[in-house]
Amino acid sequence: MMKIIKAVHVTVRSLRLLALLSPVLLLLACNPGGGTSAPSSGTASPVALASTTLPYGLLNTAYAANLEASDGTQPYTFALSSGSLPTGLTLSSTGRISGTPTAPANATFIAQVTDASTPQSRATHSYTLTIVGPLALSSSTLDAGQVGTPYTSGPLPITGGAAPYTATLASGALPAGLTLSPTGILTGTPTTPGTYTFDIAVHDSEPTPQTASASYSLVIKPVPLALSYPATTKGALGTAFTLAPTTFTGGTKPVTLAVTSGTLPAGLTLGSDGSIKGTPTSSGVFPLIITATDSTVPAQVVTAPLALNIFSSTTSVTVDTTKALATVPSTGIGIHTSVYDPSLSDTAALPALLATSGIRMLRYPGGSYSDNYHWAQYTLTPIFASTTPACGVTPNGYLAPHTDFGYFLKTLAATGTQAIITVNYGTSVADAKGTRSTGTQGGGVTAPSTCSEPNRGGQPQEAAAWVAYTNGDPASTQSIGIDDVGFDWKTVGFWASLRAATPLPTDDGYNFLRLGLTAPVGIKYWEIGNEIYYNGYNSNNNTESDVHAPYVYTAGYGSTYASRANVAELSSTAYGTNAARYIQAMRAVDPTIKLGIVVSSAIDPIPSTWTPAVLTAVCAATSFDFAILHYYPGTYNATTAAQLLSSPQADMPRLVSGIQSNVAAACPASASAVQIFVTETNPDGTLATGTPASIPGLYATHEILTALESGVANIDWLELHAGAGTFLGEGTETPGPAFYGIELAHLLADVGDTLVSASSTNSTLLAHAALQASGKKAILLLNADPANTANVQVTVTGSTLGATATQYSFGIATSQSGSTLPATSFTIPGNTFSVVIPPYTATELVIP
Hints:
Layout: H1 2-30, E1 48-49, E2 57-58, E3 63-66, E4 69-70, E5 77-83, E6 89-91, E7 96-99, E8 105-114, E9 122-132, E10 136-137, E11 140-141, E12 145-146, E13 151-152, E14 158-159, E15 166-172, E16 178-180, E17 186-188, E18 194-203, E19 211-221, E20 226-228, E21 232-236, E22 241-243, E23 247-249, E24 256-261, E25 268-270, E26 276-278, E27 284-293, E28 301-311, E29 315-327, E30 333-336, H2 350-357, E31 361-364, E32 373-374, E33 379-380, H3 405-415, E34 418-423, E35 437-441, E36 445-451, H4 460-471, H5 492-500, E37 525-528, H6 572-589, E38 594-598, H7 610-621, E39 626-631, H8 641-666, E40 675-681, H9 695-709, E41 714-717, H10 737-748, E42 754-760, E43 765-771, E44 777-783, E45 790-797, E46 804-811, E47 824-827, E48 832-837, E49 841-847
């Protein structure tokens, strides 16, 4: 019984205590796990690291920042899990990063935190910590700008700090038209020139931004000053004149203008707008330099050249494209070649050069040499009787290497030209064997196997064999015959077979003729002798070999041989009779060839009876195809520019007309088919002292066109290399004045083009014109005045003109290089237009 009471007593005390603690017990009953953050499941939350963005650090400046953790059971312990902190910083176990960074960095690392629970919980997180240097901005001179031109600067030279940066204008003013973007870029289009200085400040992106500033200089240039005028401008004496500059722009106003070289014509003034105005009271050519200076500091200075041509009168040129004068034949423009020319065999350079200049014919073997040259032996007979022994001296005789007929044919093929061959009328081969002797050429040069002497007059069989070689059939058995000295010229087939053969292992003297050409060469044009009227018959200088009568005295080149005067065998009748024999022998080999005979020029010191007598003798026996004229105007060895540029228009029409009249009278049956070839032309010897170098070129242009307009079918310049006026330099192939002059004629009228009427009101302004097969119109104006510029008004009838012409010029003031004349554009405002031609200059316009 007692135990029960005690138990109850205890129970009562317990109940009293329970009553006192009931609020607490009730709370515990609701949260049996304990801890204010424990989940209802009874498990505590794991520790976690806060996603904190660490502040920037500044180089060499004390740094401190705390990593934050939550949940789990404190205390926490921090450590570096991977990566590294910037140099100079450490992470403490309490999560504090501290120290002084010693190097810029952008460090990424992983930190770990561990709590005090059992078991422990851990957490990691990646952080980035940037250490930057002090913000700095460097001063500099910015790239220059220009008024009116869009401008964009480069990035500012910022170092240190934390990007991105923000730029602002701290002081000063930007150039008008430019703005500064927050990124620090200057943009816009400047409107005012000058030098601008200003400060720019930049702020970085740190929580407490750094600021830096610097001064800058920017030059805004003015628009470039520009001034130009037409290169040449014409005006008329006593007539109101106004010339505005082609360009006068830019610069900083005001701009001053001045004539700094030359003098304005009296009556004209230079205005502030660059115009030249007034009424000129003096004529002439006035080369000027106008200088413009603006107000920029430093000033811009430009110069502009200008030539004012004030004329006292105007020349009128009228071109009528409906009035045809002549059509240029395929034989039209040629050139004389010679066996003494060491550059004759230049098959590398000559094809392009001859094509550019328009050369279509090559004459061979060369002037007076023709009557001494033996094509099949490659020898020369002395021009006069040589000194004892025979062939001891060959006056004026020289055979250059690689000039034999075989080499000539190679040049002919390479250049695509035709040939005109001058056969030997003056001398025969030495004897029945065609002996070749060793002679001493001019200058004492020993020349083995190049001389043929003694001899007689030229032989038709030698000429016929030459035709057989070029045009014959190797299978032909037609006999050519034995000549007067007993040399057997064999058959047509013999010579044609030589042409078709290849060289023998052992040269028999004919290997130079073995070319492997089985097909005929087809040379069409042949002339019989060269300037035979100079053989002494007419008591003039004996410059041409003709041994149809012997030389009584031995003497040098050019001597007078009284004993040869009026010797019948040397007369014009004898030449005509012998020429007929040549024609018959050569046509017997090839009846399709064209043969020419020598006639005299009315300007040469030859009796007027020469040509009629020759024609009468020839046409009594046969017919011929063309008359051969040589034309050398001017005073011998003192030819003036005035003579060269005034003679062709006076001489050529009457020379052609005179020959045609003589042919019609002596050869009425064939006269209409006879053509006229001018196979030599050049100044008469050397030029007068002081004659400009370009004059022979201008003469070549004018003479060629005048001859073709007058009805000449061929005109050949003498000669290919060197000589007066120089076509091409010997050994250099450098074009000379004659080359450019002939090229100018070729550009006006090529084969198939029609030369048309062109008249001038001024005798010193020479005019030529052509209607080209392409439909283009070409006009050539040559100012033969040595001092005065020609102001030419051109009127063209019969054709419509295009708006833009191609212009070529050659003369004393032009400059050429290479083989092609430079071309420029020329505006054609209509069928009447003006052209300015400087003194001694030819200008050509090719108009669509």
